[in-house]
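Run folding on both entries below.
>entry_1
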Amino acid sequence: MNLPPPPDRWDINRLTEERTEAVGGFGFTPRQARFLVEVLIHSGVFVERQYCQFAGLTHGQKTTDFLRRLVECGYARPIATGAPHRGRLFHVHHKPLYAAIGQPDNRHRKSMPMGRMIERLMLLDAVVADRTCTWLGTEFDKRSYFVRRLRDRQVKLEEYPGLTFGTGATARHRYFPDKLPIGIDGENHIFVYLVTSAVPMDFRLFLLRHAELLRSLYAWTIRVLMPAPFASAIRLFGHAARETLATPLPLSNAEVLPSVFRDRQRRRDAPGEAADPQLRSLWHTYSAPRFRALFRMWQQQGDTAIWNARSGRLRDMLQCGQGRVEFVKLTRQYCHLSSLVGVA
């Protein structure tokens, strides 16, 4: 199929139908094709129970035939996850399938460590479990949707979540770099975050990256997926969310932080240089996790990151119910998939 139409004529539901039809051309039923589109977009891997849940089936001849077709036609490779009775994991790697949905270079089709596969299974579980949402998975889909959705609010593209890789002429900027699903449920937008560490620094950065986009929406939910080993860190992540979203940066901090951050960057670039004695006393004051995360955003956005942190808009949205942070404990077992699991 051709690439999806430009944003001014773009619609995620129509695009999903086109992708499903294209995948169905490989000999799959509409239900099988629709499931494979979700896999191709969100994970690249799946286990049989996820197809059963999506299709409303139990293990039987229909699921067996579907899995056999995937393997025998070379569309997916089975990966043993231990003893035979523990099942198999399937990695959908066939490039023409990805090309059929306009994603020939999607990284999901490439080999990946088992730990990463398990993370993607968790994300696919989150998508399959909530069928009330329309889910966005690719950078193109997210950009196209929000450009169309927020056109009347004149949100600038540089205000979308992004990261710049490299410097100078070789620098590359990627939007929505977290590769996490975003759900659309009417006016509400659900931003999924999967916890992979007991320390919420990456979570703070995720929130900072999305802050400007969240301010532009009518309603949003941050859905934090907590694998069992990290369930005890919910309070820590809740504190990080309160600091980042519901506690605007005081003006007194915002006025001094640019100088502190520039001095910190200067010392990183030239470790041998003497420290500024006027700023030395402030290093400890601004060494807390909130300021370390803000420093990393400042490295990407400059002083704009500091002044954006002063806004009370997200706090107000949380107070009136337009914004919400929810924690979902993952009850399914993933540890049997690998002895190297670090996130399950």
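>entry_2
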Amino acid sequence: MAELYSADEINALFKDLPEWQQDAYSKFANMIADEGNTYPCVPGRMGFLSGHLRYGFASDPRTHASAEDMAKLLNQYGPVSRDTGHYASLVVICETPDDLRNNTTVEQYQSLFWEMLNQVSSLDTATWPEHISTDPHETTWEFCFGGEPYFCFCATPAHELRASRHFPYLMFAFQPRWVFESINDNTPLGRKMKTLIRKRLAAYDAVPAHPSLMWYGQQDNLEWKQYFLPDNEQSPSKCPFISMKQAISKLTK
């Protein structure tokens, strides 16, 4: 069974973890807490340094077992997320064998990301929250699991120009929506945080900020467009999540 860990728990049993998990966690720690303090996601860095983040590992993302692992982790995380700290997030790192890492494009990872998210959603037994739209093309939509809305983030080995979305393993991060209650575009702290993150992104990435990148609370903000950002400025015209759900619905009729 996929296990949910705090940083202290990972450090305590580090040598007992599979080698790839040791490597993945070490690389994550070095990236987010780099000595130069350059990592753009300030809330993520603060969450790591404060011990607010939780971690889990999933199987090869090309297998259904990976979606099952992620669903189990979300089931464990949802009930405890509010007790983990103000800068809470769940980081899930997938086993990424060399054949996947070396032969997969950003576009292929994008398809894999949405396929994974769809499979995870199909394993959710909870009712969709009433205050969250089920249509991704409405501003109130957010990915939900276990009755909890999350902002999703994906990083891949194939990203090059957009370094903020690069990681040697396929990585998902699920940030509970309540985290943004005090750092959205309607609060002074939120606007200050947005300015700081944009400044860091400009220095960190080799390309300008993606046009879909907005801040929670901004007018016309569509969250799904920010979940997976490619190296270029392209963005799907329709949310792949709803397209996949509709395709599966047709198959089951």
